[in-house]
UniProtKB/TrEMBL annotation:
<protein>
    <submittedName>
        <fullName>Sarcosine oxidase subunit gamma</fullName>
    </submittedName>
</protein>
<dbReference type="InterPro" id="IPR027266">
    <property type="entry name" value="TrmE/GcvT-like"/>
</dbReference>
<dbReference type="InterPro" id="IPR007375">
    <property type="entry name" value="SoxG"/>
</dbReference>
<dbReference type="Pfam" id="PF04268">
    <property type="entry name" value="SoxG"/>
</dbReference>
Length: 183
């Protein structure tokens, strides 16, 4: 059964001694596409080096950039910094063509933490989590839903997913949280 959840309210969705699942507050999100020659100028304009390796993350303050492909990044920042990002990219567009698209309303983020966080992720994600280094992220699937999985700590993950699939994924995570609590 799909859960009916207010995705506008951050907070704990499920919690046990094994794991906690929480919906994080909204953030500004951008999809950035650029060819290799433009990457250096974009890094300078944004004040953060665009990571070159797929899965690598760059961070400066509250802004994070993940490399999702050879010419594709997602930028995540506090909502009040969205204007700074769009202005920085717009200022160099004439000499540095690129595509910057705001996707803030498309996705939500669920944080999964606790001693059984990895176990909970594996109920829907086929990826070997031991191969995902702390501080990196990967595009993957969770029960057939395309997601981006961030590993922030040994048992600390973020799962970015499209808003339309969130109720399904959250329902699975809530059920899994309950099952892990019973072990």
């Amino acid at each position: 059964m799909t859960a009916h959840i207010d995705l506008s309210k951050a907070g704990i969705l499920a919690e046990s001694s094994a794991v906690r699942v929480a919906l994080l507050p909204p953030v500004a999100r951008f999809s950035l596409r650029a060819a290799t020659p433009e990457q250096k100028a974009l890094s300078k304009a944004l004040g953060i080096t665009l990571p070159a390796k797929i899965g690598q993350c760059g961070r400066k303050g509250d802004i994070e950039i993940i490399c999702l492909g050879p010419d594709e990044w997602t930028i995540i920042a506090p909502e009040d910094q969205a204007g700074m990002i769009t202005d920085a990219c717009a200022a160099i567009y004439a000499k540095t063509p690129h595509s910057l698209t705001e996707i803030s309303d498309r996705e939500v983020t669920v944080r999964i933490t606790g001693p059984k966080a990895s176990d909970l992720i594996t109920i829907g994600c086929p990826r070997d989590l031991d191969q995902l280094p702390v501080g990196e992220a990967r595009r993957t699937v969770f029960d057939g839903v395309t997601t981006v999985l961030w590993r922030d700590g040994d048992q600390d993950y973020r799962l970015d997913l499209w808003r339309s699939f969130a109720p399904h994924v959250i329902a699975l995570l809530e059920t899994g949280c309950g099952e892990l609590a019973g072990e």
